[in-house]
Amino acid sequence: MATSASTPPAASVGIPAPSTLLELLKPITWFAPMWAFACGVVSSGVSAEGRWPVIVAGIVLAGPLVCATSQAVNDWYDRHVDAINEPHRPIPSGRMPGRWGLYVALAWTALSLSVSAVLGPWILGAALFGLVLAWVYSAPPLRLKRNGWWGNAAVGLCYEGLPWFTGAAVMAGALPDPRVLIVALLYSIGAHGIMTLNDFKSVEGDERMGLRSLPVQLGTDRAARFACLVMAAPQVVVIIILSAWNCAGHAAAIGGLLVAQLALMSRLLQSPRERAAWYNGTGTTLYVLGMLVAAFALRALIQGNT
Predict the structure, then answer these.
(1) Distance (Å, rounded) from C-alpha 143 to C-alpha 150?
(2) SS3 category, 245
(3) How confident is the model at residue 84, as a pLDDT?
(4) What pTM value is reported for the model?
(5) Nearest to residue 159, comparing CAs of 192, 181, 206?
């Protein structure tokens, strides 16, 4: 009897290959939280001298542990959607057999909590919050990703704001400076737009499986315009507040990066469905460079006040 298009093929029995495990954990996705963690380290204003073991452990926590956990959780609960959109992935293809995807998600959750506990209470709290969001984003009954408004907000916070906070908290050993929290939150809001563009690749499967991503709810043209607005507006606010904090040079640098993004956005909006992935590889790069500039501005401010 033929297999339904929405049902993954029968899984083979056995242990997944190491290469399949690595593919499930998606190393390419680790960059964003690792970069945000590094921005947090820089923005803390604390010298890295003598603290490199803790910094390296934090980077591992942000990327190969917490972010990788979110990828495993997402792929397990998305296995039926992926059978339509991306049937080559480890679980729907049968290369990650049985319930191995779930077992990996649980094991990586436990490992992430163990490492974060060693780094201190603030880091443990941040990791626990991020892991809870990772599970409620993908898993029923909440499954935040069923609605692009909530789901993208959760991912933006986990990919940008939370690791930025964690990096700053690791260095300070306490709650970071309020200015650090403000800037980290602004860049988290902007990441909502990045995640909206990321949803363009799976519109057909999302529609069939009842996932209300923003491209599904708004249509691709309106969703692309909204994503551009959400990415640009927080950067404008960052420019304004850095100027108010007497960081005019850093504000000007972020302004230049934003102008370049606006030029790329104009091309994106001409054909958003075809160019969403292109923009995520070009305009998003300029966005994260602006994050680092903002981190150095915060570093200068904090060091100047100590």
Answers:
(1) 10
(2) coil
(3) 84
(4) 0.90
(5) 192
